[in-house]
Amino acid sequence: MKEFMLGNEAIARGAYEAGVRLVSSYPGTPSTEITEYCAKYPEIYAEWATNEKVALEVSAGASMAGARALSCMKHVGLNVASDPLYTLSYTGVNGGLVVIVADDPGMHSSQNEQDSRMHARAAQVPMLEPSNSDECREFMSIAYDLSEKYDTPVLMRTTTRIAHARSVVNTQDRQEKELRPYQKDTSKWVMMPAMAKGRHVFVEKRMNDLAEDACSMSINRMEMADTKIGVICTGIIYEYVKEAAPDVSVLKLGMVNPLPMKLIEEFASKVDTLYVFEELEPVIEEQIAARGIKVSGKDLTGHQGELSARKIAQLLGREVPDAIVPDPVPARPPVLCPGCPHRGTYAVLNKLKYTVTGDIGCYTLGALAPLSALDTTLCMGASVGMSQGFNRMMGAEAAEKTVAVLGDSTFLHSGVTSLISACYNRARVTVLILDNSTTGMTGHQPNPSTGFDIHGERTCQVSLTDLCASCGVDKDHIRVYDPFDMKGLEAGLKEESAYDGVSVIVVRRPCMLLNKKNVKPALIIDTDKCKNCLSCMKLGCPALERAGKGVKINPDLCVGCGHCQSVCPFGAIVEGGSCK
Q: In 399-461, at which residue ranges do the beta strands (DSSP E only) sit?
């Protein structure tokens, strides 16, 4: 049956067809939807883990039990999961184990532009890379067959353009896979040095065998045409090349690690000029050049951002269709949504001129004007540790004006261990946990503090305040505030940041988008009362706009949350009626 699917949806379909039994992941754009689609198949057990490391360890346990298992994450999530991954390369698998890693060239939703093919090479595991949605589906079965045949976890790399683009998918029936028998084998599963040395020899042989066998795999193929130019490419770049220059010869690589070098050498011998077009790092080009093959690529494309059919056409001297240039539109930087509970917290921090070590999530947007309240964003959970180190070096006076900020899901992902360390080392840190009752920026996934699982069913609910107390924070220095109570929050912040120890403030209000019932009629400005003081504009709400010398509220954006009402000193923001 043919269906029109997102790449992420097709990966989930491929997992279903391949007989996958378990999926454990942590949400991260552009990979999130894979696990959400998997959760719709009753034959697959799906869960959100607290972080990517835990997710891969759960999947590894299922593989050890003989089941086909899957774990999905974005590129920076693979950094978190790299600890188990690199040793899983040594232990190998029982049931097939596949890890989907979604890279983000162009950094549409990420803090860096790293290339996960580097992880595949360092971990010495095979990596596949599909070029369209149907290959996303098809490559899943191939990946599981490779995993079980070669006793290895398999990485499958996608990018934003593959994950979030739609194309035709030829769906197949599910192939049920019985559990493969588990056998106790300390030489395989227990990676203490004596056993690991033997497994390292196995890994080297496995990669050599894979490189040899890859030359005859159907996913690596030569498409010969005009031999004046030959292009080696993978993933979405293959589609760009075929669109921009259908007359050139192409070597399409479905496996990007290890490379089928004999096949590459054969292809290179058949063309006059050889190019490798790849986004981000010259992973393929450098390996080919190291074999003494004359090749070009990165000198033309550069290392940053995305490629496109248009760019490749220009590089190959092909006719470039006239681009349709729309009328220019004003720049629209990302902003916190109307009614976002984080806005009040950042308005207070901006007013107090605190140094704020931040984290990954919606609250990263607090760095932008007019809130301008965030000083750092490094990685998940870094805010607490960075604040601890900053305060150690800067001293008590600076510490009194420094706070760490992270969200509820991020705190449970990797902030807890930093808080334990801060307490253990008698640090001076004030931590703000912005609890909006969801994992917001990736699309409102539940987390352990919400009390719901991936299916929306009730489960245990972690109490953030009790957890902080268990980490070692004095209960007298754990507070809870509503971010719309800006006066109370400000007073509490001043008191806790003056405390010579570890304190936590949980700033709690659900995300406005969780429940449409929270949306109220738009507010309006009473122009007779408005003094044009612009206090409301300091909140940075996109519904508030300048109108000549005054302010107006855009009724299409306003959700009636009332936050601006609480900061207006003249009572000029009112409900209903008509604007005077």
A: 402-407, 429-435
Query: Measured between alpha carbons, how far is 260 from 177 in angstroms, rounded to an integer?
Result: 29
Asked if 352 contacts 373 with a C-beta cutoff of 8 angstroms, the reply is no
Count of residues in the chain = 580
| Position 31, amino acid | S
Q: What is the secondary structure of 260-290 as a DSSP string? A: -HHHHHHHHHH-SEEEE--SSS-HHHHHHHH
Amino acid identity of 551?
V
Task: Give the span between the Cα atoms of 56 and 26, in whole angstroms.
Answer: 10
Mean pLDDT in consecutive groups of 10 residues from the start of the chain, 580 residues: 95 98 96 97 97 97 97 96 97 98 91 94 98 98 98 97 95 96 96 95 97 97 97 96 95 98 97 96 96 94 90 88 69 84 92 93 85 90 94 91 94 96 96 90 88 93 97 97 94 96 96 83 90 90 87 92 90 69
pLDDT of residue 97: 98
180 is written with which tokens?
Answer: 């493969």
pLDDT for the residue 580: 36
446, 46 Cβ separation under 8 angstroms: no
* CA dist., res. 13 & res. 34, Å (int): 9
* Residues linked to residue 100 through DSSP beta bridges, in sequence order: 72, 156
Do β-strands 255-257 and 127-128 pair in parallel, antiparallel, or remain unpaired?
A: antiparallel
Q: Are strands 273-276 and 45-48 parallel, antiparallel or unpaired?
A: unpaired
Task: Name the strand (E) or helix (H) holding 237.
Answer: helix 235-244
Return the HEC string of 446-475. CCCCCCECCCCCECCCCCHHHHHHHHCCCH
Spatial contact of 439 and 409, defined as CB atoms under 8 Å apart: yes
314-326 as b/e: b if 16+ CB within 10 A: ebbebeeeeeeee
* Structure-block tokens of residue 533: 């003081």
Q: Which of 191, 295, 284 is nearest to 235 (CA)?
A: 284
Spatial separation of the C-alpha atoms in residues 351 and 540, rounded to whole Å: 13
| pTM exceeding 0.70 | yes
- The DSSP H or E segment spanning 394 is helix 382-394
CA gap 375, 383 in Å, rounded: 10
